[in-house]
Amino acid sequence: MARGKIQIKRIENQTNRQVTYSKRRNGLFKKAHELTVLCDARVSIIMFSSSNKLHEFISPNTSTKEIIDLYQTVSDVDVWSAHYERMQETKRKLLETNRNLRTQIKQRLGECLDELDIQELRSLEEEMENTFKLVRERKFKSLGNQIETTKKKNKSQQDIQKNLIHELELRAEDPHYGLVDNGGDYDSVLGYQLRFHQNHHHNYPNHALHSASASDIITFHLLE
What we know:
By secondary structure, the chain is mainly alpha-helical. The protein has helices at residues 14-39, 64-75, 81-108, 118-173, 186-203, 205-223; strands spanning 44-48, 54-58.
C-alpha cells in the first residue's frame, strides 16, 4: 500500500513535534554528509530547535567561518560589517564615559577647573561639601564606637582591680585566709592549729587534752 501523504503544518503535540524534529534533523545531516562524500561539496547547516538548542553540521576539513567568508565573497554580501559597526559604537561610548569619569576625578582633586563656568563650579562645590559632611559624620560615628569600646574595656579593668584589692585586704586582715585552698604554708597551718588547740584546752581542760593530742598526730602525719 502506498503511504498516505503527510500534511505539512505545525505539529501541535509537543512530544510528537520533538520526535519529528530529531528524526528529520538526523536525516538532513545524513543527506549533507552524503553530498560531502559523493559530490565533494562543502556543506554547513546551522539549526536551532524551538527551545533554542543549537545543532550544526559542517563538512570535514572546513569550518563555519570559512563557509561564511566564502559566502560573502561569492554573494558580495558583508555579513560582519553591521556587527562590527555596532561594536565600534559601543567602544566609542565606553571611551567617552571613561574620559568623563577621569575628568570628574581630576576636578574633585582640584585639577581641570579652568574648563568649568561659574554654575558648574558652584555645583561642584556643593557636591563636595555634601561629600565632606558624609565623611565627617562617618568619622564621628567611628570615633564614638571606639570611645564606647574603650570605656567598656576600662570598666572591665577597674572591676578586676577592685576585686584584687578586696582580695588583698582580706588576706591582710586574716593571714591564714586561703592557705589551704592554695595548697600553701603548712607551718602556718600547723601554728594555727596549735593555737586553736591551746585556746580550746584553756576553755575545756579535760576534754581538750585528748583532742589536741589526736589533732597533733594528724597534723604531723600530713607534714611528713
